[in-house]
Write a structure and sequence with these properties.
Blueprint: H1 3-9, H2 11-16, E1 20-24, H3 34-55, E2 61-67, E3 70-75, H4 105-117, E4 119-126, E5 129-136
Parallel strand pairs: 1-2
Antiparallel strand pairs: 2-3, 3-5, 4-5
Helix pairs in contact: 1-3, 3-4
């Protein structure tokens, strides 16, 4: 499994909302816990898509940078409000209206990275958007 193949799963949805995906760097294979790793990528991209829709973002773009032992996924969807950014990995914490999110996706993504894959998942706001970093140790 590689990142490009994972993106193809949501390609039709992203195209439907005119969201551009830019992959920078050489793609690499993840050979352990492929399905779980794929879920992490899909959760981050799905949340970005939801933010683009909610914020009516023009020229929506997700940039994925692939480096040795590191993947960053950034968007221009407006970022995460500073007063909640430290809470987004908490279980059942959601910014979505009732019935549209469970608050479990990013929590599970972080748990999978730390406990199952042995890496780190973090987030910060950058230039009009959010940037998630997946670090393999």
């Amino acid at each position: 499994m590689n990142v490009s193949n994972t993106i193809l799963i949501q390609d039709a949805t992203l195209n439907n909302y005119n969201i551009l995906i830019d992959i920078i760097g050489l793609d690499f294979e993840v050979t352990t816990l492929e399905g779980e790793f794929q879920q992490i990528i899909l959760n981050i991209i799905s949340n970005a898509k939801d933010a683009f829709i909610e914020n009516h973002t023009i020229d929506a773009k997700i940039t994925i940078r692939l480096e040795k032992n590191k993947i960053t996924i950034s968007d221009n969807a407006g970022g995460i409000p500073e007063h909640i950014i430290d809470r987004i990995f908490e279980p059942y914490f959601t910014t979505k209206e009732q019935g549209k999110g469970t608050g479990i996706g990013l929590y599970m993504s972080k748990v999978i990275m730390q406990k199952n894959i042995g890496g780190l998942l973090s987030v910060k706001n950058i230039n009009g958007g959010a940037e998630f970093t997946i670090l393999f140790e």
